[in-house]
Specification:
Helix content is 67%, strand content 0%. The chain is mostly helical and 117 residues long.
């Protein structure tokens, strides 16, 4: 009877010895750096989106076109607790211009910004 180890030696390669897997450090470092960069980009985007309304309110407070700025403030759909705020905003939007309109708009923008917290 033929010996299978001798007869099949040319056909079947011997199994490799089990060696502990060594981590590929350059690939692991690159993957870690990529994940860190993605995390930083996501955090920056989240912060930018969160502060977008505040930046817009500050721009509206300094606007020279009071009725357009008041209309934009109404479109932001910020609802402070009291109805006096809404009445004052409607007065800026629809009534005749008043001498203190810029100060009133700035105050309303500050109150809306304080309500974002």
């Amino acid at each position: 009877m033929p010996d299978p180890r001798q007869d099949l030696a040319d056909i079947v390669e011997p199994a490799l010895a089990a060696a502990p897997a060594q981590p590929d450090f350059p690939a692991a470092l690159a993957l870690g750096a990529l994940l860190l960069a993605a995390l930083l980009i996501a955090a920056g985007y989240w912060r930018w989106r969160r502060t977008e309304t505040r930046r817009r309110l500050r721009q509206l407070a300094e606007s020279a076109d009071i009725p357009a700025a008041a209309a934009e403030l109404a479109r932001l759909r910020l609802r402070p607790a009291d109805d006096a705020w809404q009445a004052e905003l409607d007065r800026l939007r629809f009534a005749l211009p008043r001498p203190d309109a810029a100060a009133t708009l700035a105050r309303l923008c500050r109150q809306a910004e304080a309500g974002l917290n």
